[in-house]
């Protein structure tokens, strides 16, 4: 393994990840997490390619590792995991294959273009499926969310079909209504009179209705 | 029979929900997060809330028997993950009972009107550094760093100038500019790897967030939003590819 190229790759990944983190407006306390997740994914990908594994599988495994890493970081730093995944994916992008595909397409070598396009698309979908898998694995192992799902189902059910909801519901007054905002304009005397009269009539009407 | 909620309370809750959802959607959160946030707010206020969010518009219905429905359109979508984090934290704190409703309202307003966290210059600088880093990933050659920094500045400048154009055209022009610049540099100033320079300029523009969000949405069962975001990402990618192809063939002719 060429050591200087390896070090250059590390420097490149760190620079690229920091740059894209700032471009996506990720706050400074998550930069280290982004760089860690990205380095992990890229490193897995690079080492697997060095071992002679085809790029599709290495990108897939790299994406799984990166997603799991960022899910763990998200739970540690208490941020959405998207914050870490989005910059970290960039080093895995099959840039060279896509460039070759375009070049062959322009030069009219359609079979080479098709091969390269297929390869780039497969690597891209490998990354996507890897992210999916990592997400699913983390969702099912890292937080035991059965209780949460159950609760939310109960909640949703109570909303959609209130008649079927047999359990006694204790709906208290909403918390936001405890202190009503002060009226902006003081009522004039005439409008106050009008309002009182209206309320009286309404009360009378209600009494009539009930009796 | 449950006691009906006062109209004022419903309006207040609907207002907060729509503000939070709109900020989230406009700054690049996934749909599942938007809907979760809305339901968290509803749960915190003990009012049933239903929401339907797509990348281009959000509908929220608040209330049990008498309801208020609010619809909002989301026309401009930028990437601002800082706002997503802030709103997310506010809604979680509200649901956990750590802050009262009024405080949450005030904080959402603050997020709505706050200045961007990074200055314009830092964004330009970071884009340049990002491009230089990707150039090094693709080809470990330190001579690529100066042109890659220039390519990053150029890409950001074009993006700022053409922000009103439709996204496909914007990315087409951006990729075209990057490729032509790379061609100019390689042929007339200093011979470096043309492909690495082009890729360094284009890779940071790739729709990474859109694709990640699309996958997250499809995982969460949001089929409409997931498909919409996938198409968005594909369109952006197609624009970039077309721009780069046009640039390369123009460079071969010139």
In words, what does this structure look like?
- The complex is a heterodimer of chains A (211) and B (254).
- Chain A has helices spanning 3-23, 31-50, 55-77, 82-89, 95-107, 110-141, 146-160, 189-210.
- Chain A starts with a helix and ends with a helix.
- Chain A has a domain at 3-93 and 126-144.
- Helix content of chain A is 73%, strand content 0%.
- Chain A is mainly α and 211 residues long.
- The longest helix of chain B is centred in the C-terminal third of the chain and has 31 residues, at 223-253.
- Chain B has a three-stranded antiparallel sheet with strand order 1-2-3.
- Chain B has helices at 7-26, 31-45, 81-95, 101-113, 120-138, 145-161, 167-189, 194-202, 208-219, 223-253; strands at 49-54, 57-62, 68-73.
- Chain B is mainly alpha-helical.
- Chain B is elongated and about 75 Å long.
- Classes of the chains: A mainly alpha (211), B mainly alpha (254).
Short description:
The complex is a heterodimer of chains A (211) and B (254). Chain A is an all-alpha fold. Helices cover 73% and strands 0% of the residues of chain A.
